[in-house]
Amino acid sequence: MALGATLSRSGFPSCKPSAPAGSYFCCKPPSKATAAAASVGNGVLAINRSSWRCMSTATASREAMAGRRQEKKGVVDKEEEWRSYLAPERLQVLKEMEPWVEEHVLPLLKSVEASWQPSDLLPDPAALGSDGFHEACIELRERAAGVPDELLVCLVANMVTEEALPTYPSGLNRLEVVRDATGADTTAWARWIRGWSAEENRHGDVLNRYMHLSGRFDMREVERTVQRLIRDGITVHAPASPFHGFVYVAFQERATAIAHGNTARLVGARGAGDAALARICGTVAADEKRHEAAYTRIMGRLFEADPDAAVRAMAYMMRRRIDMPTAFINDGRHSGGDFYARFIAIAEKAGTYTLSDYRGILQHLIRQWGVEELTAGLSGEGRRAQDYLGALPNKIQRMEEKAHDRAVKAGKKPTPIPISWIFDRPISVVLT
Ligand SMILES: [Fe+2]
Ligand SMILES: [Fe+2]
């Protein structure tokens, strides 16, 4: 859930965008399917098919060979880069951190007794009786009737992201040291993973039940989306490295807190007028803030213990962009990559999660982890990572401005995108 459609850095080495004119053969633009696969497969940047141009045969083959060599080397370098984090001496810090996790991270979970439950936020037939329940449902439906379509679509995206929960603890259980090897480990790390998953489980439940009662969604289509998402999994960079993994989760928890928080504001009393839905989204957002605090704290500790490894891991992840975990999201009417790009445009228009939010999260984490103030213990690569991260927010801002200027210049008309979740009613957005 982030940057819009821009050019990929690689993926099609025999073609390049905007090559100069001359004696050319036309290299085929990547097929829709390939472009989409590259977009989500890399988890990097989406490919705009129309930007691909032609180039000379000789140049093409020279560049193709150089590109393949470079690409092969790049892949090896990247593998070596993140795999070096699995060395026992580098993982030692995580082992030593366990008492600290016990003291500083586990208290951020709430006990079951102190936790809200979905039934606290929704009409309860047992408490209200049959007439009272019926009345409360009618009220819920009346309030929901005022929520505009684009917010309904964003709400579904928020909900299915939560409902894809089985994917996320699987991700944490791939991390060295941290993983819950038996499913009932007693380490502080393992108890955190299970406690966090248990808190997360309520998020999808409450949103799902609200949506079911509201009558505004084609629930069968939404449910099919959830099934597809869990089946398709997630693209993870550096899958076993806790350094990289915690950068990703810290970013994502803040992103989900912002997305649920923005949705709460937009659907609430001062927006679409559904105060009950705003309360649900706000309650979920508050949980996400606690989770964000935990992962940000863990990563902060890693920055203190091994600043070089931490800053390089952060740069590694940001170079590949932090996409929403459910980048394979699909309403069943579009190809996966196409739908993701369209959803990003809808979320940007609706204001639930925007490119500015993405930039804001990055700036926040840079401040939280004192990235720009790091001095001691940085290697040359670490200093390059620090410089890259320091310059990235401005770079993203320039991309935002350029994308806006391009859209205005091109005078693009909005494209209607029919979405199955809302009975194929279209949402019109300008696709860049
Ligand atoms: Fe959540
Ligand atoms: Fe969360």
Automatic annotation (TrEMBL):
Binds 2 iron ions per subunit. The keyword 4Fe-4S does not apply. Gene3D superfamilies: Ribonucleotide Reductase, subunit A. Fe cation 2 binds at E200, E253, E288, H291. Keywords: Chloroplast, Fatty acid biosynthesis, Fatty acid metabolism, Iron, Lipid biosynthesis, Lipid metabolism, Metal-binding, Oxidoreductase, Plastid, Transit peptide. Its main location: plastid. It comes from the Eukaryota. The keyword Phosphoprotein does not apply. It is found in: Plastid, Chloroplast. One of its GO terms (cellular component) is chloroplast. GO terms for biological process: fatty acid biosynthetic process. Fe cation 1 binds at E162, E200, H203, E288. One of its GO terms (molecular function) is metal ion binding. InterPro entries: Fatty_acid_desaturase-2, Ferritin-like_SF, RNR-like. CDD domains: Acyl_ACP_Desat. Its cofactor is Fe cation; Fe(2+). Pathway: Lipid metabolism; fatty acid metabolism. Belongs to the fatty acid desaturase type 2 family. PANTHER family: ACYL- ACYL-CARRIER-PROTEIN DESATURASE-RELATED, ACYL-[ACYL-CARRIER-PROTEIN] DESATURASE 6, CHLOROPLASTIC. Homodimer. This is Uncharacterized protein. It comes from Urochloa decumbens. The lineage of its organism: Eukaryota, Viridiplantae, Streptophyta, Embryophyta, Tracheophyta.
